[in-house]
Each structure stands twice: as C-alpha cells, then as structure tokens.
UniProtKB/TrEMBL annotation:
InterPro entries: Bact_exopeptidase_dim_dom, Pept_M20_glutamate_carboxypep, Peptidase_M20, Peptidase_M20_dimer, Peptidase_M20A. This is M20/M25/M40 family metallo-hydrolase. Residues 179-275 form the Peptidase M20 dimerisation domain. The lineage of its organism: Bacteria, Pseudomonadati, Pseudomonadota, Alphaproteobacteria, Acetobacterales. Keywords: Hydrolase, Metal-binding. It holds the Pfam family M20_dimer. Residues 57-76 are annotated as: Disordered.
C-alpha cells in the first residue's frame, strides 16, 4: 500500500499558523463555524463527503467528513475525532515562533492534532491513496466544556468503528501517546444562609461562607493520590460586603478517578454533604461524572504497538502513558471500541500562557497518524 506524502514540518507549520490565528474560543460559536467552513471546503474539493451538524445551546456546530466508497475497503471505518474549540478568549495569546517552539492559542491543545487529522485526510484523498478501511473524521466545537452537544455524535460514529484515534497532544517530556485516562466529573455546591449585620446582629446571621469553607475542607480530604482520586474546588464565591453575614456561597468541584466504581463512590460521598448544616444553613449539590475512565486494555495496546512501529519508521520512539485529563477518547473507550489517544503535536503548556508545540516534529508526528488512518482495519 503506498504511503501518503505528508510534506515538511515547515509547510505544515505555515498552514497550521492560519488555524491558530483563526481563534476559536468555545464561547464563540460563529468563529468555530467559520473555521469549519474553510475545512469543509478544502475536504469537499478533494472528494470527501462532508456533513455539518448545526450548533445548539450556545455552542458551535460539528463537522463529519467521510472518504468516498471507492477510495477504501468495505469494513468498519477508522474514526478520528478532534476538537476545534480552545480555552482562550480572543486576543489573549498570539502566534509566534522562537527557535523550535511555536506558540499560540490552542496550538498544542489541540489545533495541531486536529490539523494533523484534516491534513492527513485531505492528502490521502488528493494523492489517491487507497486505505484499508473507510475513514470518518469528526471535528467538534465543545470538548473543552465537556462535549455536551457533541458526545452523542461521537458515540454514534464510534459504535460503527473498528478503531478510534484521538489526536489530542502528545504527553509531557516523553512526548507519549495515551492508552488510559482518568474519568472526570463536575459538581456544584451551593449554600444558603441568613444575612445579618456583622456587628449589631451577628448572632442572627447564618454564614454560608463558613459552611462552604468546612465543606471544601471535607471534599479536599477525599483526595487519594495512591488510588488516583483527586478533587479541586474552584471557582469559589460568596458574600457581598465585610459587614454583612453572607447568605449565599458556592463552588464548583472538579473530580478525577481511575475507575467507574471510584467515581460512583466519590460522587455519592460529595452528594451526602447536602442538606441542613450545623451552622443553620442549607446545602444543595448537583452534578456528577461527565466522562467515564479510559481504561487500558489489550485492544488499546494493539493500537499502541501499531503506532509505535509507525513512529519507528518516522524516526522516533513513541512511549505510552496514563493521563489525568479527560478527552473524547474516554467516551469511545468506555463503549469497548479500541481507542488510542495522544496522537497530536508534541509540546507543552495546555491551557497555560506558554502553550506551544515543537514545530520540527510536526511532520513525523502527523505521519504516524496518517499511517494509522491508512492501514488500520478489520
């Protein structure tokens, strides 16, 4: 089977720059849809069958691109799923290159990986490479806020797939792909108290902030690093003025767990804190798990070995890792579909002001994803 020519890292960086400079905060659905317009036009021009799903609930739309039947085998498709939204508001960061590092909003998480998937599909079709299986590319708009409007689509496409590839960024200094991830959850704690003057009527008040402080400490004590369980309470709010006993307070709670069972237990433990409190306040707690754990299994390891062999041909070693952050791969792996994650750009700084990729590695990293897209199948 002929291999698709990817091009050089310099040419990939030049085109990736356009994606990065086209900023796409999750909160700006019009900006995301405009980038999807450009992507759709490029893919349709080389024969891809493109479908657009309109956005809802204040989010952007989704894009599905499929190879035409005559370009591939007849088995179950290989699904490649990436997202275009970033955590960065417009104008916070700008694109720049310093030595081997290319900086910019979302360039690491995960514009580079989504670009790899697009570029690979476009070049496979443009160069007439016949693939072992059909390819389905999904690009979504809301992964950074939990994939509420795209999860159903991702799971529907994964249910028909022989494998799912997730080009989220390669991990850490080892530049590893990902065979397991923690499950993630989000909960909201709200406290209602009773206002009073903090000097003249202190005894009549019921401080929501005091209750919240106690609950935050209790939730923090649920952390079990050895078991892979963490909690984090932020942001936190409460009170109006120093001389007013606060009648409202609250926080969000991020939870990370290694197994489904630990997730259920942690959600139950936090939820049990709700109800009347010793301070005379009332607590309500909502939310729960939103991404199941991605557990390493034999199917994921088989995909990893294929990726590692492709990386060796491209001239580098590809280790694997387990990662604490969630991705859309959590959904597909929990369905029992073979899933390999972390196939995007190498770099650092996801969600940080120094976010960057190592741009000379763009071509070899993209080549591995492209080879998997070409060669995986039943």
């Amino acid at each position: 089977m002929p291999m698709t020519r990817i091009g050089t890292s310099e040419t990939l960086l030049e085109e990736l720059r356009g994606w990065v400079e086209h900023e796409t905060p999750t909160t700006d659905p019009a900006a995301i849809d405009a980038l999807m317009d450009k992507i759709a036009a490029e893919l349709e021009a080389v024969g891809a069958r493109v479908e657009r799903i309109p956005g809802r609930d204040g989010r952007g739309g989704q894009l599905i691109a499929r190879t035409p039947p005559e370009t591939s085998g007849n088995g179950r498709p290989v699904v490649v799923a990436g997202h275009l939204d970033t955590v960065w508001d417009h104008g916070v960061l700008s694109f720049r290159v310093e030595g081997e590092k290319a900086y910019g909003p979302g360039i690491y998480d995960m514009k580079s990986g989504s670009f790899f998937a697009f570029h690979s599909l476009r070049e496979i079709l443009r160069q007439g490479t016949r693939t072992k299986s059909p390819i389905t590319l999904i690009l979504t708009s809301d992964e950074e806020v939990g994939s509420q409007t795209s999860r159903e689509l991702i799971e529907a496409e994964a249910a028909r797939a022989c494998a799912v590839l997730i080009p989220e960024p390669a991990g850490g200094t080892q530049k590893a792909c990902v065979t397991a991830r923690k499950g993630t959850g989000r909960m909201v704690v709200k406290v209602k108290g009773q206002s009073a003057h903090s000097g003249g009527n202190w005894q009549d008040g019921r401080s929501a902030v005091v209750t919240l402080a106690r609950l935050i400490t209790a939730i923090h004590h649920m952390v079990d690093l050895e078991a892979g369980t963490t909690t984090n309470c932020a942001p936190i709010w409460g009170g109006t003025r120093p001389n007013v006993i606060p009648n409202e307070a609250g926080c969000e709670v991020d939870i990370r767990v290694a197994t489904v069972e630990k997730g259920e237990a942690l959600v139950a433990a936090i939820s049990a804190l709700a109800g009347p409190q010793p301070e005379g306040t009332e607590v309500s707690i909502t939310g729960g798990m939103n991404r199941p754990p991605m557990v390493e299994n034999a199917a994921a390891l088989a995909l990893y070995e294929a990726a590692r062999a492709a990386a060796a041909k491209a001239g580098y070693d590809l280790p694997k890792q387990h990662r604490g952050g969630g991705s859309d791969g959590n959904f597909t792996a929990a369905m029992g579909v073979p899933t390999l994650d972390g196939l995007g750009g190498a770099g650092a700084g996801a969600h940080a002001e120094f976010e960057h990729v190592i741009w000379p590695e763009l071509a070899p990293r993209c080549a591995v994803l492209c080879e998997l897209m070409e060669t995986l199948g039943d």
